[in-house]
Design a protein that fits this description.
Oligomer: heterodimer
Number of domains of chain A: 1
Helix content of chain B: 25-40%
Number of helices of chain B: 8
Distance between the termini of chain B: 48 Å
Helix content of chain A: over 70%
Radius of gyration of chain B: 18 Å
Strand order of the largest sheet of chain B: 6-7-8-3-9-10
CATH topology of the largest domain in chain B: Rossmann fold
Shape of chain B: globular
Order of helices and strands of chain B: HEEEHEEEHHHEHEHEEH
Structural class of chain B: alpha/beta
Order of helices and strands of chain A: EEHHHHHHHHHHH
Shape of chain A: globular
Strand content of chain A: under 5%
Number of domains of chain B: 2
Radius of gyration of chain A: 22 Å
Strand content of chain B: 15-25%
CATH superfamily of the largest domain in chain B: P-loop containing nucleotide triphosphate hydrolases
Largest sheet of chain B: 6 strands, mixed
Number of strands of chain B: 10
CATH architecture of chain A: Orthogonal Bundle
CATH class of the largest domain in chain B: Alpha Beta
Strand order of the largest sheet of chain A: 1-2
Structural class of chain A: mainly alpha
Distance between the termini of chain A: 33 Å
């Protein structure tokens, strides 16, 4: 965007909102919103503490494991659904249902099935992320140019080769898009898991800070979480742009 | 490389089975629709046979059945006297829409057929490099398909089919997606290829002029259900040089004759 002939760098609007936040905070309108400067000062204070680092580790672990399983299970499932009509007919209703289902309501069931520990949190994270990953991989495979598949077959590709040298690559733009959205959903999943299942990680920090009215701490952790989610999602967006040159030409 | 001795031995060893590919009684049904009905056709070794016909006459279906990509409902395909059950290393396919991997360089695309056959990287790249140069793309080894023109992309597809060294080359309207001038150049190059490569070419086209220009044998297919209505073997103008074919009286007569028999089938 240009203002008075100057090209503004990306995300300049954040400055405006940050300023507004600071003004509202300084005016003391509500205890709920402390000034941004105070939040940022708290942020640097909090980051060094062992409690924060333990929470970060617990959250990152559950998040990483959850996303890992979502990708490792979701991408092949989606590809096979795109390839096989039978599998597609069998699984698609479930995938669509879980994609739009309020998964939070399922968390108590997971607790009964898998206990109150890390396992349930990881499964919750996976459940939040996996459906959109499956759907996107499926959509990616379904639009593969038929002659690429014929080409692989006519040159004698084994099913293994066809999977890793054709399907995964040809569907890669859609797969990466699905993973990017899945990762954002996984952030929700991991926090909801940590709040509902066992009070650990960032979920525990949110619980602790909000029940003690430590709003600056609360916002600081939220900003850290947002920054992490944003960075990961931007990383996948970057990968997506790397393959965009062929997305239109398959 | 085929040495003169090998070629001689080859010719004396197989003087009788001079058909590289034979289609015997092939039918193909899609549900109730008969795409091909009891079709029999032979493809002489070392020659180019065109499958020519109006659209919807099943010529691409027949080519895909020969390639092993489609199963015939009845009948069988013999390649070198042996019935086929699927795709095989004796046949290579050139696609109408090129079917290149958009994420791979020209080098990897050309070497892809060999890669799928498990040929080591250095070996397949030296073979691919030779054919890239042969089709006139030297210097573009590291380019990507989206950086090339349509004609150049089809040269990549052709180099890929040549580099697996199959005896039979199946070409599905290979020049229909390139512009007219490039297409003429391709047709001339194809004639040289047929002469020099000692391979059997099966060429699907909907262009009468193209079929007559490049073919040793033209099979006219008529639609619904598809059958071979006529086989034409132009003989007089093949050796007169690429520049003289289009004004040869026999060339013009055959083009007219084919049009006369096809015009009723064109909506």
């Amino acid at each position: 965007m240009k203002v008075f002939g100057y090209r503004l760098p990306g995300m300049s609007s954040l400055l405006v909102w940050g300023l507004l936040w600071e003004i509202i905070g300084q005016s003391g309108m509500t205890f709920f919103i402390p000034p941004l400067s105070e939040v940022i000062a708290t942020l640097f204070e909090v980051i060094g503490t062992p409690a924060f680092q333990k929470a970060l580790y617990e959250t990152a672990y559950a998040f990483g494991a959850g996303v890992f399983f979502a990708i490792v299970i979701g991408v092949p499932t989606g590809i096979f659904m795109g390839k096989s009509r039978l599998l597609d007919e069998l699984l698609l209703p479930w995938v669509n249902m879980f994609l739009s289902a309020p998964l939070t309501a399922l968390v108590p069931v997971l607790m009964v099935l898998f206990g109150f520990g890390m396992k349930s949190i990881i499964i919750t994270t996976t459940l939040f992320a996996i459906w959109i990953i499956i759907l996107n991989a499926r959509a990616g495979v379904m639009q593969i140019n038929r002659s690429l598949i014929d080409m692989a077959r006519s040159f004698g590709a084994s099913p293994w080769d066809a999977f890793f040298k054709i399907y995964v690559w040809a569907a890669l733009p859609e797969i990466l898009g699905g993973v990017r959205i899945g990762v954002i959903r996984a952030v929700k999943g991991v926090i909801i898991g940590q709040l509902l299942i066992s009070i650990v990680g960032f979920g525990a920090l949110f619980e602790l800070y909000s029940s003690n009215f430590l709003m600056a701490h609360f916002w600081a952790v939220l900003i850290v979480l947002f920054a992490l989610a944003f960075t990961i999602s931007e990383f996948f967006a970057y990968l997506e742009r790397r393959v965009a040159y062929y997305a239109a030409k398959r | 490389m085929v040495t003169p001795q090998t070629r001689q031995a080859f010719e004396t060893a197989q003087p009788l089975t001079d058909n590289a590919v034979a289609v015997r009684g092939v039918s193909k049904n899609y549900g109730d629709v008969e795409a091909l009905k009891n079709l029999t056709l032979e493809f002489p070794r070392g020659q180019l046979t065109s499958l020519l016909g109006p659209s919807g006459c099943g010529k691409t279906t027949l080519l895909k059945i020969i390639a092993g990509l489609l199963e015939p409902t009845a009948g069988e395909i013999e390649v070198n006297g042996k019935a086929i059950t699927g795709p095989g290393p004796d046949r290579a396919f050139v696609f109408q829409d090129f079917a290149l991997l958009p994420w791979a360089s020209v080098m990897r695309n050309v070497a892809f057929g060999l890669e799928l056959r498990g040929v080591a990287k250095s070996e397949r790249e030296s073979v691919a490099g030779k054919y890239i140069a042969d089709v006139g793309l030297a210097g573009f080894e590291n380019s990507f398909p989206h950086e090339l023109s349509g004609g150049m992309r089809q040269r990549v597809g052709l180099a890929r089919a040549l580099s697996v060294d199959a005896q039979v080359l199946l070409m599905d309207e290979p020049f229909s997606a390139v512009d007219e001038q490039t297409r003429r150049k391709f047709q001339e190059d194809l004639l040289n290829l047929v002469q020099n490569e000692n391979k059997t070419f099966i060429f699907v086209t909907h262009s009468i002029e193209e079929a007559v220009y490049v073919s040793d044998q033209i099979a006219i297919l008529l639609p619904r259900p598809s059958r071979v209505s006529e086989i034409i073997r132009p003989s007089g103008f093949r050796d007169k040089g690429v520049d003289n074919i289009r004004r040869d009286p026999e060339y013009l007569d055959i083009v007219d004759e084919i049009w006369a028999s096809l015009r009723n089938y064109v909506e």
